[in-house]
Amino acid sequence: MDFTLQKIALTLMSTAILAVSVPAGAATLKKCNTAPLIVTAKNVGQISYFAENCEKAWDTQSIQLDFAYSYDIPEWAFKRAANHFLKKNVAGYSPNMALNQITQWYKPVKKGDLYRLNYQHTAQKMTLLLNQKVLGQVSDTQINQYFNIWFGATPFNAKLKQQLLN
After folding, report:
1. 152, 146 contact by CB (below 8 A)
2. Across residues 123-131, what is the average pLDDT?
3. Per-residue pLDDT, 74
4. CB-side exposure of 62: number of CA atoms within 13 Å?
5. Which residues form the Chalcone isomerase domain (predicted)?
6. 3-state SS of the chain: helix, strand, coil percent to 5?
7. Is the pLDDT of residue 113 over 70?
8. H, E, C per residue of 14-40
9. CA–CA distance, 113 with 128 (Å, rounded to integer)
10. What is the average pLDDT across 93-111?
11. Is residue 8 assigned to a domain?
């Protein structure tokens, strides 16, 4: 009897956790690929790419990138890299674009931290989380272009782009 009550309690807790971590109305995403995150020849973690359909183009659906870090990374490094690759990969880039809101939310990370960048296609909404805590959300018709940092014509790392999308 106690075992059955424990199973029911665990099931209810798991359901509650899932309800909190998956936004209402969000598409079900499948893990497509995982690749090492290499910065100046050093593996600083790994990135996992999730999509509604791993065979479809990333910019036509809801997607997510999870960044699991194995080293401490300062805030300025995220912001500098994001600004640099947004300028290179987003046509008509301007510092006043909604894309820059995401960049401003970055915080430093420590070994073991997880950044999650989630895009909901139907809502045209991007959410940035650090260790499952929402740092910010923004809705904009062009917000998914933020992923051009990794998937654009001049990405952060061409090999990483290939590993995640193929």
Report:
1. no
2. 97
3. 96
4. 19
5. 59-165
6. 35, 30, 35
7. yes
8. HHHHHHHHCCCCCCCCEEEEEEEEEEC
9. 13
10. 94
11. no
Three-class SS state of 89? helix
Written as six digits, the tokens of 68 are: 């699991």
pLDDT of amino acid 106: 96
- pLDDT at residue 4, as a whole number: 42
d(CA 17, CA 11): 10
User: Is residue 20 a part of any domain in this protein?
Assistant: no
User: Is residue 101 assigned to a domain?
Assistant: yes
The DSSP letter of residue 90 is S
Contact 107, 55 (CB under 8 A): no
CA distance 39 to 30: 26
> Residue 123's domain is classified under what CATH number?
3.50.70.10
pTM for this structure? 0.82
Contact assessment for residue 165 and residue 58, using Cβ atoms and an 8 Å cutoff: yes
